Amino acid sequence: MLNVENRVEIPEMDIFEQRYEKRFNLWNNREKFENLSAKWYDAIFLEQDAEAIVKQVKAYDQDNIQAKMKLKKGETDEVLNKFDMDVRRVVEHCPLIEALGCKDLESRHW
Hints:
Blueprint: H1 11-42, H2 50-70, H3 78-91, H4 94-100, H5 103-109
Helix pairs in contact: 1-2, 1-3, 2-3, 2-4
């Protein structure tokens, strides 16, 4: 039987867990974003929830900003940079997505 009370702390494991969690979250967010993007680009716009799209994109943007702030000075992350570029491309269009998705304007302009 394993005695949990006498557990030895291994600092390297804590560092590994922190790094793994950051990478896992980044890759997980990237995968979710790619799946959502495919849905957004392939589906009929009027059948989508523009408000939800903008909210999701802004959440990914905020997560990327926080992840970049956690990088050490001078450190870069290729995956994060690429993911951030992909998200920023959609962020640029959020005002347009919101405007086109406004339900009040739908009957008049669509």
